[in-house]
Amino acid sequence: MPLKLSNSGGEESLDTQICHMKNIFFSFSIAFIFSMILLMKGMAHPGGHYSESDKSYLNTWSLQNGETFKGNFSRADEQNLYLENESGVFSVPMRSLTEQDRNLALFKMARLEKLNQSLSIEPEQKAGFHQNWLLVGMVSLIMLLLLAPQKRKVLFLFGGLVFVYACSKAVGSTPSAPSITVIPKTRTTFLDSAFNDFKPAISTRSDNQYYYVASSGIPAHDKMIGITSWQQQVPIPQAYEGSNSWSIPLQPEYATVPLSTKTNLMKGAVAIAVNGIPIFNALNNRGEDSYIIGELDKWGGHCGRADDYHYHAAPMHLSGSNNTLPIAFGLDGFAVYGLKEPDGSVMATLDTCHGHVLNNGVYHYHGTTNYPYVIGAMRGKVNLDPATPAPENQILPQAFAKPARPALTPLKDAVITDFKAVGSNGFSLTYKIGVKNGYVNYSWDGNNRFTYTLIDTAGRSTTNSYQR
Ligand SMILES: [Zn+2]
Ligand SMILES: [Zn+2]
Predict the structure, then answer these.
(1) Ligand 2 mean position to 434 CA, how many Å?
(2) Each residue of 439-467: pLDDT tens digit?
(3) In-domain check, residue 7
């Protein structure tokens, strides 16, 4: 029936006018109920927050240093931009953003403020806003019931109740403030499951704060073979034990801004492999990709200036027979897996830190066969050694290697072709320059006395002993 407001009097009878009024009220109430439901639905999601369905719609934000972060705008203030992704909410300092992205954040902040003002979604105001409308709705409902013909009373009563219910729900809800994801404490049994395969060569213990790994720093697998850029260092046992053990935090916390390994942590380890061997930045202390320039053996490792064996590439060979066990733990406390997910499925897409959040809500990294191999940026909080400026800064606590002899220099064109144990406390390394072989034969005793015999490609032999 067409709706029109009639003038009073005229040819229409009083009954017809009442009938029109009832129809107007009816239409108004239906439209009102629907618009209120739509309004409330809109207000339940102020917008910008992460939800599961956002996975492929995360915005990218760029920093002046070239780093990028994926996350949706959550809120911003003068100091920080708060972004939200599947890991929770994290903040990025406004001043570190590129000018374009800082302006975008300021624009979004201004728009959100405007929207908040127009919708009055301050908790108290919002409740007042709904309480007023609740009153109007209830008065309308009573009027409708009085005016409605018998057969429509039930329909009106039902519609009215739905409206009152929706309003009462809205009054009870306040805007949810974004919460930082709390990471559950890592179970030591989980860490044990990764490290146990390498005992008794390594040993572990824990307290409330850390899981400690003690090792000699010499892996059970073959080593050194395949190095084509060699600084004449060889592996000797290190005392990674007692207070100099490797420490894995049991309660990881997300970093506000993940520390990029491109511009940081070129000194010391970033992770500890499950066989007790430290993993260093993929870049050496000159910023070069150790693997690409031939510094690493077939297992992703080599020796530092203290004759300390460590990996720079991911030790993928440690992922167990099913390739599903962690190969390492970051010094921020997050596990590093190999090419498979822990459930055996194919590795999911990695973020710029080189990891992602597992189904259980906990972050983990993955080792891969290309840069950054293990950790692109520390997703968890780490303490930095204040005595070490970036990029050669390092994480504390950290276990330290101790040299037995002065460090040597690169040996041009040497390629390591063989490395084998001699007895239980010595090794023999063979290298080639052109067609000629050279050797390093060395051993140590129980009192930390190390003896090295160097035989160069001309057959000249030099022996030196050092007390460590
Ligand atoms: Zn190294
Ligand atoms: Zn994964």
Answers:
(1) 44
(2) 999 999 999 999 999 999 999 999 999 99
(3) no
**What is the reported pTM?**
0.64
Bridge partners (DSSP) of residue 258 are none
What one-character-per-residue DSSP string does 35-82 give?
HHHHHHHHHH--S----GGGGGG--EEEBTTS-EEE-EEEEE-SSEEE
- The CA distance from 92 to 80, in Å, is 6
The reply to whether 207 and 248 lie within a common domain is yes
Centroid of ligand 2 to alpha carbon of 356 (angstroms): 6
* Confidence tier at 15 by pLDDT (50, 70, 90): low
Q: Please report which ligand is nearest the Cα atom of 347.
A: 2
**384 in the same domain as 269:** yes
The Cα–Cα gap between 47 and 49 comes to 6
Express each pLDDT in 281-316 by its tens digit. 999 988 899 999 999 999 999 999 999 999 999 999
**How many residues does the structure list for the chain?**
468
Q: Does residue 198 sit in the same domain as residue 110? A: no
Q: Model confidence over 342-400: pLDDT tens digits?
A: 999 999 999 999 999 977 788 999 999 999 999 999 999 999 999 999 999 999 999 99
The CATH number covering residue 68 comes to 2.30.30
1 inside domain: no
Same domain membership, residue 113 and residue 78: yes
Indicate which ligand has the atom closest to the C-alpha of 278. 1
Residue 43 predicted with pLDDT over 60: no
The residues near 160 (Cβ < 8 Å, ≥ 6 apart) are 29, 137, 140, 141, 144, 145
d(CA 11, CA 6): 10
Q: How confident is the model at residue 5 (pLDDT cuts 50, 70, 90)?
A: very low
Q: What percent of the chain has pLDDT over 70?
A: 69
Domain coverage including residue 132: 14-45+121-172
Question: If you measure from the C-alpha of residue 284 to the centroid of ligand 1, how many angstroms do you get, rounded to a whole number?
Answer: 6
Q: Tokens in use for 172? A: 């009870």
**Residue 324 CA: which ligand is closest?**
2
Contact partners, residue 240, CB within 8 Å, separation at least 6: 213, 214, 215, 216, 217, 246, 276, 278, 399, 401
- pLDDT exceeds 90 at position 120: no
Q: Choose among 179, 388, 367: nearest CA to 264.
A: 388
In a domain, 338, yes or no: yes
Q: Compute, in angstroms, the gap from residue 303 CA to the centroid of ligand 1.
A: 6
Same domain, 437 and 365: no
- How many CB atoms neighbour CB 36 within 10 A? 19
For residue 121, is pLDDT > 90? no
3 lies in some domain: no
The reply to whether 429 and 384 lie within a common domain is no
* 153 and 238 together in one domain: no
